[in-house]
Amino acid sequence: MKKSAFTLIELLVVIVVIAILAGIALPVYGKVLERSRATTCGSNLKQLGLGIAAYLNDNDEQIFSTAAIDSKFWPEILQTKYVTNWKVFKCPFDTRPDTSETTAASVNVSYGFNENVLKQSAGVGNWDGNFSKLASPSQLVLMAPAMTTAPGTPTFTGKGDIAVSLTVPAEVKDRTAFLGTHGNRAQINVLFADTHVSSLKYGPGGVAPGGDPDAYCTTSGASGPKRWKPLGL
Fold it and tell me: What pTM does this model have?
């Protein structure tokens, strides 16, 4: 009986076709995976925002400060009652391995709190932590992924038992300095004080007057300082 089989040429053709298809599929898969992670990141921030809103409701609109409350910092304060799943505190772009959730010291926290909101002082004209006094809650940055300034893959260092905070990002002048989480690190998800979440450009903040209202790192113009200061000064 005559046995049928693939010739060497036919096998090579099949291998080449598979390689071409894989080359087309992998970038598409990577983009889909990134979009999925960005969506999950936004969902995490939304849940944290709702937890903060519940905390404020229980505390006469007074937010916690940089000082520890009952020896707990903000991740533990929220996790104890308002956002009980520690996994919500970890951004999907944070590649650190999952750890035990038995203690705050053992879990990884990816998100940071606007330090200007956490720093409070009494006195007329000062920010005392009462959210009813916010100038523009829909424009005030409250939380976002808190990464190091290392280039390449986003790098996180936060833990559940420390006060992770966000400082006003420096003006980004060139593409190599982008420090977002997705979109070639040119985008970042941000939770605002009114609990809505937006994806902003983590790139050049624009020029005066006003800067770029869609840029996370704007430090000049009307959309810069006001975005990071509770009283909008």
Answer: 0.82
